[in-house]
Amino acid sequence: MTQVSKILGGLHGSLVGDALGVPVEFASREARQRDPVIGMRAYGAHHQPAGTWSDDGSLLLCSAESLVEKGFDPEDMGARFTQWFELGHWAAHGLVFDIGNATRHALDRIRNGTPALQAGGRDRYDNGNGSLMRILPVTIASLDQEEGLFVARIEQASAITHGNARSQMACVFHGLVVRELMQGAAPHDALSKAQKTFQHLYADAEELGTFRDLLRSDLASQPEIHIHSGGYVMETLTASLWCLLTTGSFSECVLKAVNLGSDTDTTGCVAGGLAGIAYGLDAIPAEWRAALPRQEDLRSLVQRFTSAFTPS
After folding, report:
1. How far apart are CA 35 and CA 30, in angstroms?
2. Model confidence pLDDT, tens digit, residues 127-151
3. Can you give the three-state secondary structure of 225-273, one letter per residue?
4. Other CB atoms closer than 10 Å to residue 225's CB: what's the count?
């Protein structure tokens, strides 16, 4: 599998996972057990056509576009996020139909003149999954950087909307797993290596204890009843990794993520990005990719992104 296939798989996989989850967002796990998602659905929770990505996909694409056109520039990235919020930039159909409270408040601050790196909330209640869902392009674009800069860029990109240390560290943990997957590690090995690096990086961090479940060697053996899938960043990260570890294909992973219920679009987005990197673009069902809107726009952006950031 080529590096390009992994990057394309990660980007498309994020959008596909997001789109699979949009119609059933907020529904319970029990509802999904009675009526599991097995493919793209239309309408539902947000009354959107099949294949529609949410704020997750839009902000991920804004991040990718900013990186391609300006390099790593948090001010530019934050400006593009506000362009999405105000004008529907990179919205699937030009319409903003969902936004998290922490992200909304951060973008309001940016519009009122707050520098992007200071815009994200720092309170312990500001730990939703709104930076994790869009962090993948920053990680990929930083793979060639030395570790200190790799970590700093991910933390800074998170801080645009989510500035609490827990959210920043969750994004870095995700980034470390992505880095290992990009280097060819299997999911279990990628997690194990990421856990060791993470503990070294944050050995003295007050928040390290929050990550105890993610640092377990037996994460994959945890029963589903212990895996939560709400909008809290730690739940999304844990659930997404659990889905990757307990499945053997892109489709199986992303459908398992969506059928956990609750914050289905974001769990699907994050799990889909991880699985897309692990299994590559061709592992994503063609009919799911074809359901995504704005095909020409997507093709242009992902081609520019892979040209700029495929690791040497």
Report:
1. 9
2. 999 999 999 999 999 999 999 999 9
3. HHCCCCCEHHHHHHHHHHHHHCCCCHHHHHHHHHCCCCCHHHHHHHHHH
4. 7
Six-digit token pair at 89? 């930039």
DSSP 8-state symbol, 31: H
DSSP state of 292: S
Q: How confident is the model at residue 215 (pLDDT cuts 50, 70, 90)?
A: very high
Please, which residues have CB within 8 angstroms of residue 312's CB and are 6 or more apart in sequence? 144
The percentage of the chain sitting over the pLDDT mark of 90, rounded to a whole number, equals 99
DSSP 146: -
Type of residue at 277? I
Dist. CA 64–CA 11, nearest whole Å: 9
| CA–CA separation, 209 and 207 (whole Å) | 5
Rounded Cα–Cα distance for residues 15 and 61 (Å): 9
What are the tokens at 256?
A: 């398992």
Tokens of 216: 């377990």
pLDDT at 173: 99
pLDDT at 308 over 90: yes
Compute and round to an integer the Cα radius of gyration of the chain: 17
d(CA 58, CA 77): 12
Tell me the residue type at 57. G
Give the Cα separation of 108 and 270 in Å (integer): 25
User: Which residue ranges form the domains of the chain, and what is each CATH number?
Assistant: 3-309 (1.10.4080.10)
Q: Determine if the pTM surpasses 0.90.
A: yes
